[in-house]
Design brief:
mainly alpha; two-stranded antiparallel ribbon; 11% strand
Length: 260
């Protein structure tokens, strides 16, 4: 997830369209709902309290008058003052003199509840967003549960390659030794090198596996664990390649279709 800075100076994490589609298999339309919400309702992103007047403005100023809206959507809906919301008087300067108006601060949960009650296009967007976000957060949690161990198994594979190379040649390997092994796994599983995958996915970074979905990362994790065992056992590269190719054909035959 991408870290973004809010208008109040605080930072929060948001989804990018690319990771929703790549990692979580969202459709373009599903991802658009999330993107539209994050763009049109930045006030509801984060965990801080919410200025009710700013929320009203971002919702499109429903009912035309803030005071009428606040009474119907906040006061009359059973929200508890000093718990769900807080009210205070504010002096507003005019061209001639000043006036006092009542303002409201809402907890984030209250602000979201109020927003979802709007029977407008913005209200419908918000309801769709929370349905999609429930799915996205659940899927993202599952993605991390696969991706994090996959990172660790790659580190273990690199350690095994380093130890094996050092024992054989008396010096540590350079980066090409690790790249060759990673590309071998990528090619046998997906049909492409990491460089090819980067081009296919139009990725601007070099961590291609951050762009894979759960299915691919799970397969890579299992292959890396297998490969690590083969390296530790002293099996040569070409023989390891042969064993892993047979494994890919038997267990992961559909993986190449994902990027095609």
């Amino acid at each position: 997830m991408k870290i973004t800075k809010l208008k109040d100076g605080n930072k929060t994490k948001i989804f990018t369209k690319k990771e929703l589609i790549e990692k979580l298999n969202f459709t373009d339309q599903e991802a658009k709902v999330v993107m539209d919400y994050q763009k049109k309702l930045p006030i509801l992103i984060g965990s801080n309290d919410v200025d009710a007047r700013l929320l009203w403005e971002q919702l499109g100023q429903p009912q035309g008058e803030f005071n009428k809206w606040a009474k119907r959507k906040i006061i009359d809906k059973g929200f508890a003052e000093n718990q769900d919301f807080f009210s205070f008087d504010k002096i507003v300067e005019r061209e001639i003199g000043a006036t006092i108006r009542t303002e409201y601060t809402l907890t984030m949960d209250t602000a979201k509840n109020v927003s979802m009650m709007e029977n407008t296009d913005m209200g419908r967007l918000i309801r769709k967003y929370f349905i999609k976000m429930e799915k996205a957060l659940k899927d993202y949690e599952q993605w991390e549960m696969i991706r994090n161990p996959e990172k660790e198994s790659y580190k273990q594979l690199c350690t095994a390659l380093k130890d094996n190379y050092t024992k054989r040649y008396g010096v540590e390997p350079d980066g090409r030794e690790y790249s060759r092994e990673a590309d071998m796994l990528n090619i046998l599983l997906l049909g492409y090198t990491a460089k090819d995958v980067k081009t296919i996915l139009n990725s601007k970074d070099n961590v291609t596996r951050e762009h894979f979905d759960i299915e691919i990362n799970k397969a890579l994790d299992e292959l890396q664990i297998l490969d690590t065992g083969l390296v530790i056992s002293g099996i040569e590269f070409e023989k390891r390649k042969e064993i892993i190719e047979l494994t890919c054909r038997g267990k992961y035959s559909n993986a190449k279709e994902i990027l095609s």
